[in-house]
Amino acid sequence: MSTITEKELLEEIRSIRKTLEHIEALLEERLIGVEEPLPDEIEEIEKYETEKREGKLEPIKLNELLKELEETSVKTFHLSLK
């Protein structure tokens, strides 16, 4: 293996290592919960848990939600054109 190729390989490995370390830091921060939820997020979580416990939540099909969002965005788009 030539010296140039080895240097290029070493640079690529260092770049991959840096990217991996960045991904690991993001995972720790977001998934493991390094950051505490904000007060408004805590309030919404508690509201959701209460409504779930009391049976006030109704499950909806994802397809229905996507269709509704699509219709809403089309209407919004048409309104913005006027």
Task: Give structural notes.
By secondary structure, this protein is mainly α. Helix content is 77%, strand content 0%. The mean pLDDT is 80.
Characteristic terms for this protein:
mainly alpha
Instruction: Give me the secondary-structure category.
Output: mainly alpha
What kind of oligomer do you see? single chain
Number of helices: 3
How much strand content do the residues show?
Answer: under 5%
Major pleated sheet = none
Radius of gyration: 24 Å
Q: Outline, from the CA principal axes? A: elongated
User: Poorly predicted ranges (pLDDT <50, ≥5 residues)?
Assistant: none
Written as H for each helix and E for each strand, in order along the chain, the element string is HHH
Helix content: over 70%
Please state the average pLDDT score: 80
The count of β-strands is: 0
